[in-house]
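ugh finaly. both done.
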Amino acid sequence: MARFGFIHDKLDIKLLILYIMDRVAAPIDFATLTDLSMCDSGVDYFQFAEAAAELTDSGHLDRQGDIYSVTEKGRRACAAGESSLSPVVRQRCDRRLAPLNQALKRKAQVRARVEEAPQGFDVCLSMDDDQGSLFSLTLLSPTGEDAQRIADRFLAHPDRVYNGLLGVLLTDDEGRQPQ
């Protein structure tokens, strides 16, 4: 059966997978890798799944459960072979990776965890930017449900929490910010 597209065989698919994994901001699951790899009509799912398994077996990819990451061996192979991937395919991959990488970066910079404490539950919230830590805060919650709700809301709206804290801390008793 004739296939159209820029990807023609399993070697092309392996290079595509390595290209994607070399550029993704954090380890990803198999479903996400699959979605990113289906950027060309020449990619066959079964050849893709086989290629991913072979890259894992050969040490080009590392698999922890359902989470994949590229190894140093995979990075070297990508650097050596990525120029043989069509520029069109590379551009498609880069466009698909941009929103994912932004979300992965945000997830890494905003963290919340709930820990059981003697008096209830500690909710540990932290937020970083590219330069380092912006803030970290630990709150005590009487119940695990409340603690989890606080953590979830912080993860959903970290900018509102950060700006709210700054607004309270930088405003005087009459609601004015110092000059």
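ok and the 2nd:
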Amino acid sequence: MTIFLEIKEYNNKRRKVIKITIYIDIIFLENLIMNSIIIYATAIILKVKAKTMRVIIASSIGSIYAIILYITNMKLYTSLISKLILSIVMVYIAFNPQSAKKMCKQVLIFYLTSFVFGGVSLYLIYVIKPQDILMKNGMYVGQYALKVIMLGAIVAFIVIKISLKFIKTKFNPKDIYCKIRLKLDGRQVETNAMIDTGNFVKEPITNTPVVIVESTLLEEILPKEILNNLEKILIGDFENIPEEIQLKYISKFRCIPFKSLGKQNGMLVGIKADGIEIETEEDSKKTDNVIIGIYDKSLTQRGEYRALVGVDVV
């Protein structure tokens, strides 16, 4: 099927009429392919499976919409609301999200992917500068326009794949975890810790960095009399702690102020450690300039880690 678009341009007050031959079936096919690439790229980013039939149906709807933009001047089809509705419909058909939260996430990634594809395509049009390209209703039309846009979609897909691979290697979730060994009085305890970029807790007098540790983890290296009386120690009440334990640890106790862990302003009992070893995938470090901040609750619900280490310690 063939249609003729008559586009009027004004140059030096002269009206110039350009007739461009547009093949509806070619427009449909090229948009179908381009939409499919965008949807599959979105599926790869979201790590979801996209069924071929759903992708074809969603892409076909987008192609029909593109054809309508070519042949009509109705503002209804070029409005932001209509484009948003189209995106939601395409995403819903392609991925069948089971919740509004997933739907919003998928629409967002769909838009981000489309923006990358569109940006690369416009750049190729700018660089290659194919002939007989005009814009109608926000869509490029011409003998070579769609071919260039499709090439842009393929290039953008490659760019996204390379970018995702780079991001995955640079921002591996494993990088935020490390293994630590705390040493105190000739004994040591080992656990997984999270490297907390927002943890700048320090002992206020000596400015010594603090590693925040769950109290239950310290049962192997600290007397239970200390761990069971943390709140009393903070106010200077050592009545329930035997004298020999007081004499041994009194010089190591510290009061650590903090503004996290569920409290705006709070205090932790700290105890000077003999040393700490930190192991990451790339390096290991030892230091004796650290204080153990004893936290009497769980840091996580699933127990992925039981300590928080500041970046200054790592």
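summary for the 2nd one i guess: The longest strand covers residues 2-11.
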